[in-house]
């Protein structure tokens, strides 16, 4: 009987620790570094340690992207709210200039 109680307690402890391990939230991934861009109206915007896997708008579009992060920046056209049709990318620690022309400017960015 005593053996059964110990075995049951041990099984419950193992099960509880496994449940805690599986259910603990993991830390969010980020593009470590600075991401900046010059908008079509001439303003310059800067972000630090941006979340990976999140489709983020570039206010007023971008004529220049400065990606000083450790991840590539994937860029998307206006109207692509789900970041599904990539048209350009900017590698880590590099810059790129866009325009002029129709559909020449990125309006969304995502780090993966």
TrEMBL record:
Assigned keywords, A-Z: Signal
Signal peptide, first to last residue: 1-30
Name of the protein in its database record: Secreted protein
Species annotation: Streptacidiphilus fuscans
